Each structure stands twice: as C-alpha cells, then as structure tokens.
Amino acid sequence: MDTTEKETLIKLQALDQFEALLNNKEFSDVKFVVEGKTIYANKVILISRSSVFSAMFRNPMKEAQESAVEITDIEYNVMLETLRFVYVAKVNEIEKFSKSLLATADKYDLGGLKEICTDHLCTKISVESVVEYLSLADLHNVRQLKEKAIKFIIDNGNAMVNRPEFDSIVDLHKGAFLEVVRAVLAREKIEDSRSSKSYKKKLHQTYRHVLLQSLKQNV
C-alpha cells in the first residue's frame, strides 16, 4: 500500500469515526425530536457546518438553552440523512429522499447537500416529474434545476401541453411559467421551434391570462 492509499484509508476511517458520533447519546449535547423519535447530535459539528445551526445554538434561543430541537416539518429519516451529510458529507438513499433533502438543504443552508440533490434530480427529469421539479426549483431557488426543467418543457412541448400538471405551473408558480414562456419566445427568434403550433398557442394564451391576472391584483 503506497502513501496515497494509506492517506485515503486514514481519511475514510476518520469519517467512519465521525459518523459514529451521530445519534450517539453518550457523547451528544443536543437532541432533535422528530416524529416522536430522538436524534442525538453535537453542537460543535452542527455549528461548524451550517450558518443556520450556528445562529440557532449561539443565540439565546429556546433550543440553545434547553439543548433540544423539536422538528415538526421534516420526516425522521430525512432529518437523519440531513445530519449525516452535516457529519460526513454523504447521504444514504438519495434516490428516495432527494426531493425532501433539497428542502432541508435550503432550510439549513447546506450548499453541498443542495448540489448533490440538484445533480440527482437533474438526471431524473421526465414528462411525469418535470413540473414538480420546476416547482421545487422555483420554491428553493435552484437555478440549475430550473433551467434543466424549463429546457425539458420546451423540448417536449407536445407531450407537456395537455397534461394537468402543466396548468398547475400557472396556478402555483407564475414566475416559473413566465420563464418558460420567455425561453420559448427567445428560441423562436433564433430557430424554428420543435414545439407544435397548439403548444405555442396555449403558451401565448396563458401568458396573456397571467399578465391580466397580475394587473387586476395590482389595481
């Protein structure tokens, strides 16, 4: 075994030792209560990895005083994987939890976790998932995922236009829909769009509808 291999092995062993600290009651100084279950953790690790945790435990908040944090908006397994990333920069079952982990990464300011989830979701975009992913990207301000989703919608306009999820973009995320329309219009200026006339017609009609609704709300 050469020096590089030894260094790699030592680093992996160190990560395993750090991971062993997660959910270890004996050495913990803070606990998260999620769905009636407890996850034990260490403030010094949390503070060093997240600005949100740093603010939480450095300020005179209830959590800092009682060393307990009650979580009501995250599932137990998702919170456990979020903390696993904090400890050792990895997650288990990314396929299962990527959408939920994207939300927790945004909530706790974990840029690396956000990138991992984004990269995974970008490879899973389909006709069935693209609207949901566009909504997630819009909600959590993930530019890379939003751009991928918008491009997919444009490239697959014929398949997308009559799906009920397509209309939900307008109802729930007007900003994201307007970006889709702008991208379509920009493409039309430089090349023949592969989208059908019915797709472009519906885009233009809905675009006008969104603008009218916005004007009415501002009156």
From TrEMBL:
Alphabetized SUPFAM superfamilies for the sequence: POZ domain (SSF54695)
InterPro entries: BTB/POZ_dom, SKP1/BTB/POZ_sf
Superkingdom to which the source organism belongs: Eukaryota
Domain BTB, chain residue ranges per copy: 28-95
Pfam families: BTB (PF00651)
Matching PANTHER family: SPECKLE-TYPE POZ PROTEIN
Protein name, as recorded: BTB domain-containing protein
Native source organism of the sequence: Nasonia vitripennis
